[in-house]
Write a structure and sequence with these properties.
Layout (H helix, E strand, L loop, with lengths): L5 E3 L8 E3 L4 E3 L2 E3 L2 H4 L16
Antiparallel strand pairs: 1-2, 3-4
Length: 53
């Protein structure tokens, strides 16, 4: 059995790979930042180098 420990941020425009342990879990999806988790309604981008979500 394989345990997933990292996956792509659930934000469609985000390029980040996030650790399940460190991710923000919202509605069963994993995000790299509060901005991504809230759908960028009030926060722009995720502020990670090289990502333009």
């Amino acid at each position: 059995m394989t345990t997933v420990t990292q996956l792509k941020c659930a934000c469609p425009k985000c390029l980040c790979i996030v650790s399940v342990e460190d991710a923000i879990n919202k509605d069963g999806k994993y995000y790299c930042s509060e901005g991504c988790a809230e759908g960028h309604q009030t926060l722009k981008g995720c502020h990670h180098q090289g990502c333009e979500c």
